[in-house]
Design a protein that fits this description.
This protein is an alpha+beta fold. The protein is built from 5 helices and 5 strands, in the order H-H-H-H-H-E-E-E-E-E. It has a 5-stranded antiparallel β-sheet. The chain is elongated and about 100 Å long.
Length: about 170
């Protein structure tokens, strides 16, 4: 039972070299007229510039919003700090000073917690603002620009022009 030797592609195609040669001849017979034909020239149409043709190969976002999610997750956030009794007293002293000088719209430097809208936590920011009003009912400061800052968001409150040192 001797079998004809098979070509190197036998394991891939599963055919002998003779069968491969017959397949090549069949392809040449069937498609020979177009195999080596030149590309047709369409003189009636203007060819698209290469930079426009290349646009079809530009990458696309298969997962829309994925980059935004990665940016959100990569953003550093910190947790709200629980104030010590000394820090609470200093904050209350600052609020008392603001209450005393509210008619002059005192300028304050405060550190407040801003929650992150997309994930847990937030960040502390230092702001310089003029206080227009203290809303005792809702426990917040109203700035000259109309921004409301909750007492619970405050970490520090200092009046830079104040004579009192605490």
């Amino acid at each position: 039972m001797s079998e004809k030797p098979k070509n190197a592609w036998h394991n891939v195609y599963g055919i002998s070299s003779e069968e491969l040669q017959n397949a090549k001849e069949a392809v040449a017979k069937r498609y020979g007229d177009i195999l080596y034909a030149k590309r047709p020239d369409h003189t009636g149409r203007k060819q698209n510039p290469s930079h426009n043709r290349a646009a079809q190969f530009l990458p696309f976002a298969a997962l829309t919003g994925f980059e935004t999610e990665i940016a959100v997750e990569g953003r550093y956030t910190e947790q709200r700090v629980e104030l010590s009794s000394e820090e609470m007293e200093a904050l209350e002293a600052g609020l008392q000073e603001v209450r005393r000088t509210i008619q002059t719209m005192p300028e304050v430097v405060l550190e407040r917690f801003e929650p992150d809208p997309d994930k847990a936590g937030g960040c502390y920011r230092e702001i310089r603002a003029r206080i227009r009003k203290i809303d005792e009912l809702h426990q917040r400061l109203i700035t000259e620009e109309g921004e409301a800052i909750a007492f619970s968001d405050l970490r520090t409150l200092v009046l830079p022009n104040s004579q009192t040192e605490w």
